[in-house]
Write a sequence for this structure.
């Protein structure tokens, strides 16, 4: 499901005014659209990610779910020259594509892609005592709570958590799992959102984008 495909006069206006793509970002988006794999963030969301990282002063950023690198390039461009984005991708074909796009970008030095199952990679990052200022969760939806467990170990109090698709294609708002979505996936995203809504541990809100984009400050 492409959000860029989901255009409207307001979105077109916002994108043209605030979030123009350069040739590389357009190429990545069109490449995904051709393959019918256009599940990357929209350009305006790329700008939201950039702005959040800059407002937060983030230097070390972790992305879970690279796809072809569209959101990664938006985010890496928000970082200072001594900042770094680590991005995790399980699918070797996507990882190779993303690596190729990174190598052609202006921020190739600022991005490290780690290929493999994010669950394992996150375990290694925790074992290595790595720390991040911000974590962007955008991979397989049933794993979001597990990714949040990892994020809590990788972030310091005050760290930023951003999560995409938290409306679960609109399904999450129903009181019971609707048709067309696995009840376990629905339940897991409900639990994930509930966890971020707990003001003892998070200062959070969901931006009402088509897919839902949660922004949260981890309080510890
Ligand atoms: N952030 C990207 C979109 C990511 S789409 C953008 O906006 O440009 C989700 C990606 O997560 C897919 O490429 C999928 O292969 C990857 N993924 C799914 N499960 C994963 C896992 N367990 N470990 C690592 N990557 C995973
Ligand atoms: Mg997404």
């Amino acid at each position: 499901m492409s959000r860029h495909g989901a255009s409207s006069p307001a979105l077109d206006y916002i994108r043209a005014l605030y979030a123009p793509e350069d040739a590389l970002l357009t190429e990545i988006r069109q490449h995904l659209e051709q393959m019918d794999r256009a599940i990357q963030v929209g350009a305006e969301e790329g700008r939201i990610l950039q702005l959040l990282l800059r407002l937060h002063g983030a230097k070390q950023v972790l992305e879970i779910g690279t796809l072809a690198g569209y959101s990664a390039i938006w985010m890496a461009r928000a970082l200072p020259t001594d900042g770094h984005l680590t991005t995790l991708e399980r699918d070797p074909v996507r990882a190779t594509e993303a690596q190729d796009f990174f190598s052609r970008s202006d921020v190739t030095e600022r991005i490290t892609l780690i290929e493999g199952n994010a669950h394992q990679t996150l375990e290694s990052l925790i074992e290595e005592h790595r720390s991040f200022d911000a974590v962007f969760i955008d991979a397989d939806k049933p794993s979001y709570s597990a990714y949040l467990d990892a994020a809590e170990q990788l972030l310091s109090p005050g760290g930023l958590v951003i999560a995409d698709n938290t409306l679960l294609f609109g399904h999450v708002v129903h009181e019971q799992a609707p048709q067309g979505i696995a009840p376990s996936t629905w339940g897991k995203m409900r639990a994930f959102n509930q966890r971020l809504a707990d003001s003892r541990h998070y200062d959070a809100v969901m931006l009402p984008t088509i897919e839902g984009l949660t922004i949260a400050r981890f309080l510890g």
The chain is about 40% helix and 20% strand.
